[in-house]
Specification:
With 313 residues, this protein is of the alpha+beta class. It has one domain (46-198, 212-280): q2cbj1_9rhob like domain (Jelly Rolls, Sandwich), CATH 2.60.120.620. It contains 8 helices and 13 strands. The chain has helices at residues 47-56, 67-82, 107-110, 112-118, 121-131, 158-166, 212-215, 226-236, and strands at 26-29, 58-61, 92-94, 101-105, 135-145, 153-156, 173-179, 190-192, 199-202, 239-241, 248-252, 257-259, 268-277. The strands form 3 sheets. The chain has a 7-stranded antiparallel sheet. A 4-stranded antiparallel sheet has the order 6-12-8-10, with no helix packed on it. β3 (92-94) and β4 (101-105) form a beta hairpin.
Length: 313
Amino acid sequence: MEMTVSRRSDFDVADAYPTRGSGAERWIERTDRVVWSEWTDKAPISRDDADSFARDGFLILRDLFSPAEVETLVNAAAQLRAEGRDRAGDDVVTEPGSDAVRTIFRLEDHDTLMARLSRDARIAGIARFLLGDEVYIHQSRLNYKPGFSGKEFYWHSDFETWHAEDGMPRMRAVSASLLLTDNRAHNGALMLMPGSHRTFVSCVGETPEDNHKSSLKAQKVGTPSQESLRKLAEAHGIADAEGPAGTLILFDCNTIHGSNGNITPFPRSNAFFVYNAVSNALVDPFAARKPRPDWLARRGKPEALKIEDGQLA
């Protein structure tokens, strides 16, 4: 059965980044800003950090949280994973070929401490500055990559999926990953291509019906070709986002990233929050028949987060 892509009226948001068409893969120059706020001495990050994010499309920050806070978060994450099978539902994803928990979505709905973390000024406040707007959580999840068997995440731009399947209009979203274990190159730390956020790779191939049911385990549709990945890597290089537990990694929605599998005995996990500007609310998907479920992409009129200062409880 042939899939029909959602129709758009003249009143709908224009598609600035068309993807998943029938033609050849192509590169589109980014037209959106990367850092949407002008830096002042009241900004939550330094001028150098803001410039680095604008240039590279990501930023690694350490020592934002106390050792006691990190320990509390690590314990909460371990408890969530231990209860993962009992929480079985669409928002709990297992590893391909096993029942080991890979991802728990709607993190702030599953745990009060994680909900408080999502509103913390040390994360959400930085996202608000980078996006130059009030923010809401587009998606959240607790990621696990177990020792010996953790599978890889293939190279991709998150925005390509959020645009095509969720209807995110513009590149005005940022991901925040708080490491809850030591993340090293050998146990599957995040890899990013610095500067790749300046180019949108328009991928080929239609979006299958309910694509998220398979893409959450192994993404195939909406990933750049090997030729494009080779050219991007040659132009920008590859950086390993390494650090001890408590390290915060922020990256632009269009930065090409991925991670290797984990065959070491040492698991890798992180709490992951995607902040979208309230002015960038979702519309109809740009390249899918219907939007993904709400636990993958929060829909409706966004409500700005009430960002909180102070130590985590």
